[in-house]
Design a protein that fits this description.
Blueprint lengths: L1 H14 L10 H8 L3 H14 L2 E4 L3 E4 L4 H22 L5 H19 L3 H19 L2 H22 L5 H16 L3 H24 L8
Antiparallel strand pairs: 1-2
């Protein structure tokens, strides 16, 4: 029950269904989900640990806002983690890994062409997940999994405009070639460049007031 409440609330926060700054009452959420208040409270505690929810006991529980500083800090960490995953994963990649990356990029390109935000989001996640799988580092996976909710929240807003979507398709294709050739250093460097570019696109969204705060 707690897992179900967590996943449902996480999806609502990431997609913006629950708006930044919106106050949450466990009784109302429990009624909406058809659950008791206990699993909802447990889910909210987990969401607070991921940074999606902030709480002041006895005063409020609300959805955290996005600000430029926090987003930049998260993307810097993700850039390093993704670079590490690629660098350590490439030497262990098989033809199956490369095929999975190609399929994920094809799915991503199709979603961009169709303006399918959810599809683009899922395909991009699948694409980057291949290197994490190949790396086979459980500690790396745990840290990335812990960051994913915040990262997904940022990327959902990026993909909500599909800003830079076609550039990402090209980046993916170049990364696949480097991985297929076993060039771990080149692939890791390209991955780092891509996340730096993404940071610039996110800044553009803040400048255009497409994200919640420019602080």
């Amino acid at each position: 029950m707690s897992d179900a409440a967590y996943e449902r609330l996480k999806e609502a926060i990431v997609s913006g269904e629950l708006a930044p700054g919106e106050k949450i009452r466990d009784s109302e959420v429990a009624q909406r989900l058809g659950l008791s208040r206990t699993p909802v409270r447990e889910a909210l505690t987990r969401l607070a640990d991921t940074g999606l929810v902030e709480a002041k006991p006895g005063v409020y529980t609300r959805i955290t806002t996005l600000n430029r500083h926090d987003v930049a800090a998260t993307l810097v960490v993700l850039r390093s983690l993704d670079e590490l995953a690629v660098r350590t994963g490439v030497p262990h990649m098989t033809t199956d890994h490369i095929d999975r990356m190609r399929r994920a990029n094809e799915d991503f390109a199709h979603a961009v062409d169709q303006h399918d935000i959810a599809g683009a989001f899922a395909a991009d996640d699948n694409f980057h997940g291949v290197a994490i799988d190949a790396a086979g580092n459980p500690v790396l996976r745990r840290v990335i999994d812990q960051l994913h909710p915040q990262v997904h929240r940022i990327l959902y807003r990026k993909f909500s405009t599909l800003l830079g979507g076609h550039d990402t398709v090209d980046h993916h294709a170049k990364l696949i070639d480097l991985c297929a050739n076993g060039d771990a250093d080149g692939a890791a460097g390209l991955s780092a460049e891509h996340w730096a570019h993404l940071g610039g696109l996110i800044d553009e969204l803040f400048d255009a007031d497409a994200l919640e705060s420019s602080a």
